[in-house]
Amino acid sequence: MSSKRPQYPPEFRSQIVELAKAGRTHAELAREFGCHATSIGTWVRQSQIDETGDTSSDAPLSTAERQELTALRRELRQVKQERDILAKA
């Protein structure tokens, strides 16, 4: 059975990112705050993407773009369901 990954609040993530940018190692922060060093690395990279605003086609999505994409996919799924219901009527 798979376990769920812990969800860390944005304030916690930003605090960890600031400490990492100040020179603390990911492993050190992971031990101190009880999260995985890989997660910290992901948060730091995402923070750099968000700060630079790189919009090239091969750049990873910023947090805002990722949220927008999720919302658009949810809306598309709902519209398709509504369309299918109307088609059956």
Mean pLDDT: 88
The count of helical stretches stands at 4
- Give the biggest sheet: none
Tally of DSSP β-strands? 0
Q: What would you report as the Rg, rounded to the nearest angstrom?
A: 18 Å
Given helix and strand content, the structural type is: mainly alpha
H-E order: HHHH
Anisotropy-based shape? elongated
| Strand portion | under 5%
Query: Helicity range of the residues?
Result: 55-70%
Cα end-to-end separation? 41 Å
Name the poorly predicted regions.
Answer: none
Counted up, domains total 2
GO molecular function: DNA binding; transposase activity
Pfam family, one: HTH_Tnp_1
Coiled coil: 62-89
GO biological process, one term: DNA transposition
Could you characterize what this model shows?
The chain folds into two domains: 8-52; 60-89. It contains four helices and no strands. The longest helix is centred in the last third of the chain and has 26 residues, at 63-88. The mean pLDDT is 88. The chain has helices spanning 10-21, 26-33, 37-52, 63-88. The radius of gyration is 18 Å and the shape is elongated. The protein is mainly α and 89 residues long. Helix 1 crosses helix 3 (37-52) and helix 2 (26-33) packs across helix 3.
